[in-house]
Amino acid sequence: MKLIVFGASGDVGSRVVTEALARGHNVAAAVRNDAGLGKLPKGVTPVVADIADPAAVAAAMAGQDLAISAVRSPTGREGEIVTLTRSILDAASLTNLRVIIVGGAARLRLPDGSPHTVLSDPNFLPESIVPTARASMAQWELCASEESVNWTYASPSALLQPGQRRGVFRTDTDKLLVDDAGNSEISMEDFAVALVDEAQSAKFPRAAFTVGY
């Protein structure tokens, strides 16, 4: 499969690139500027594209079978992720390309019959994370309203951090996954595994899924 990863030098994007390369896929790795090129591994086709420019993104998508957007916005500018996602979706529409959007956990319903989501529960998130969660929810609402693109929205567990590639995890659609101790987590490595799995299987067309231990 020929696929392009946007945000390829980031925490999740770099792991998606590594996982896709290990499976023998032809990977184009897109970064925002030349400074990111030095962070890319051997074996990829390097691409510089301004994510805010749908025409530039569409040009980068040309000839690919699939796009994965692992783009994030910096602290203090969390809301920019919505604009960047809009650009990715517009480019996917122009090229008729399937796209997987890496999102957040804000939309996920809490377990055990709670009426709340990760974002709406007043006691779940630290205050410092709330701006990111609000932006994540807006990003999800944007994708959910999109009718012209074959998108998939991928939510990690509540805790996403570097770790081991176990290759064993669970998936769901809109429920926060927790383990027997009540923890909700997934390593970035296994989240990348799930993203490449979805790239290959297309189990969630125009739908969302989440991953957790």
From TrEMBL:
<dbReference type="InterPro" id="IPR036291">
    <property type="entry name" value="NAD(P)-bd_dom_sf"/>
</dbReference>
<dbReference type="InterPro" id="IPR051606">
    <property type="entry name" value="Polyketide_Oxido-like"/>
</dbReference>
<dbReference type="Pfam" id="PF13460">
    <property type="entry name" value="NAD_binding_10"/>
</dbReference>
<protein>
    <recommendedName>
        <fullName>NAD(P)-binding domain-containing protein</fullName>
    </recommendedName>
</protein>
<dbReference type="GO" id="GO:0016646">
    <property type="term" value="F:oxidoreductase activity, acting on the CH-NH group of donors, NAD or NADP as acceptor"/>
</dbReference>
<feature type="domain" description="NAD(P)-binding">
    <location>
        <begin position="7"/>
        <end position="198"/>
    </location>
</feature>
<dbReference type="InterPro" id="IPR016040">
    <property type="entry name" value="NAD(P)-bd_dom"/>
</dbReference>
